[in-house]
Write a structure and sequence with these properties.
- The chain has 203 residues and is of the alpha+beta class.
- It has a single domain, classed as Beta Barrel (L,D-transpeptidase catalytic domain-like).
- 24% of the residues lie in helices and 31% in strands.
- It has five helices and eleven strands.
- It has an eight-stranded mixed barrel.
- A hairpin with a 2-residue loop joins strand 7 and strand 8.
- The longest helix has 18 residues.
- The chain is globular.
- It comes from Methylocystis hirsuta.
- GO terms for molecular function: glycosyltransferase activity; peptidoglycan L,D-transpeptidase activity.
- This is L,D-transpeptidase.
- Belongs to the YkuD family.
Length: 203
């Protein structure tokens, strides 16, 4: 089999996969120096092609520039003009802990510090030393990953986040304590698109 044939077949297969996923694959965002350093050290895991980043057709009554999270399908949509959206694969909260409803982005952080919340400490007391030390500094091993979008309602922090993850193999599953996890590269991409006040709807 010639190299030319293999290359053509590979390109055709990529187009086929994109068609199956109903969208156009999007390039990775540009990384700054710290991003490149930390991303090189962050845990790696492949995800199903359906959970990669695509530009897709998406109809909604929410305004352009909104975030819509579908807990059931494990997709997050960032709405774009012309009936389009950027679709990302996510991991969501376990059924009893999943956040639903309307919120807005009240804070944005790059490589945020992670402090275990009170309910998590009650379930996993072994994390208490981390809380006592003021949390875990941002970095490739931090559970919040590369970026965090802090969800607010009525001026108050809900304590729920949309954030990166140091467990990319969990994308597509209901595994978190309620937050919405993304691949680190996808969290960076979304972070670059949003602003304080961005509407968030979690279905």
């Amino acid at each position: 089999m010639s190299f030319r044939y293999v290359t053509a077949a590979s390109a055709l297969f990529a187009v086929f996969l994109a068609g199956c996923n109903g969208g156009t694959p999007l390039p990775d965002p540009r990384l700054n120096g710290r991003d490149a350093e930390f991303m090189a050290l962050a845990p790696k895991a492949g995800v199903s092609s359906q959970y990669e980043r695509y530009l897709v057709d998406y109809k909604t009554n929410e305004p352009v520039g909104s975030i819509i999270v579908d807990n059931r399908s494990k997709f997050l949509y960032y709405t774009m003009p012309g009936g389009k959206a950027v679709r990302y694969g996510v991991a969501t909260g376990q059924d009893a802990m999943a956040f639903t409803g309307r919120a807005y982005v009240g804070g944005l952080q790059e490589w945020p510090r992670w402090i275990p919340p009170k309910d998590m400490l009650e379930r996993w007391p072994h994390l208490q030393p981390t809380a006592d030390a003021g949390g875990l500094p941002g970095g490739p091993d931090n559970p919040l990953g590369s970026r965090a979008l802090y969800l607010y309602q009525n001026g108050k922090d809900t304590l729920y986040r949309i954030h990166g993850t140091n467990e990319p193999d969990k994308i597509g599953q209901a595994v978190s304590s309620g937050c919405i996890r993304m691949r680190d590269i996808d969290a960076i991409d979304l972070y670059n698109r949003v602003k304080i006040g961005t509407k968030v709807v979690v279905l």
